[in-house]
Amino acid sequence: MKDEFDLIAKLLQKRPPVDKSVEVDVGDDAAVYRPGLGMSQVITCDTMVESVHFSEQTMAPEDIGWKGIASNVSDIVAMGGIPKHAVISLAAPEVWEEESLLRFYDGLGAGAKHFGVTILGGDTVRSMKGLVVTITLVGEVERDCSLRRSNARPGDIVFVTGPLGGSAAGLHLLLREDTSEWIVRYPSLVAFHQRPYPHIEAGRVLSTLGERVAANDVSDGLGREAREIAEASGVRLVIEPSLIPISPETVAYGAEIGVNPLQWAFDGGEDYQLVGTLPAQSWERLLHLAKEKEVSFTQIGWVEEGEVGVYCIDEGKRSLLSYKGYNHFA
Prior knowledge:
The chain is an alpha+beta fold. It is built from eleven helices and 13 strands. α2 (61-78) runs parallel beside α3 and α2 (61-78) packs parallel to α7 (200-207). Residues 27-141 form the PurM-like N-terminal domain. Mg(2+) 2 binds at residues 46, 75. It comes from Marininema mesophilum.
């Protein structure tokens, strides 16, 4: 890279069209946009660091861009919101050629377009070692309709919105020495890890249901995310592992290498599905709305009074879930 500003101009060409809510676009010191009438703003920030979140072996530049947007979108979805505007901070080392950075922005732009996000600029600097990407995403949700981890109550149903464990299985596959053979046999596992699809409509169904709903996105494993709901709400979550949806390829790959796929579901993370709770009397209405919007919800347990935590029940026997999940400083 010879010139920072020439690179910025090329990167900006990769953006999807700017939406009508933007009053001042790139070119001034800051962007200006109008929030929707009657909406509250939702803001989140996520960072991806080379050798921590990705490597040349596990993700192409386009995948890094896509996943950077998707991980932030998932946070907005978990609040029941609509993703709107993003700013991107990119710290690039000298070994990252301009072509690779443009490919990164191709993936970023494709993800932004798919999820309806307008990129309003950001910052570009030199990194001494490794690519570092930080994305701040702003979304909107109807006033007083955001989903909260603290909303779970005894008697609620515990649900998830889609299959779990696929991303961790995909990462395991990509880190193998003989990975090329396995990629051909289990392509969906690679996709789960490299190109996640958080379901905006699932969050929207929950936030507009008019009920008390708790939700959390499964970025650090089902065990940790369920525990966060239990702690925030002061309740006990009981999960039946046999009810957890797991894709056929995740099950097949686990069987072939001798790993229980539930381990990936509970401790893996980066599935970007939702785990949540809602009153049992609202479950059938949720399923009806979900069918109309073509999204899925699966009951995996219930909420009860008792010592705060997450318990698993298998063949009538209960055990306290000893979760791991992803922890940057563990």
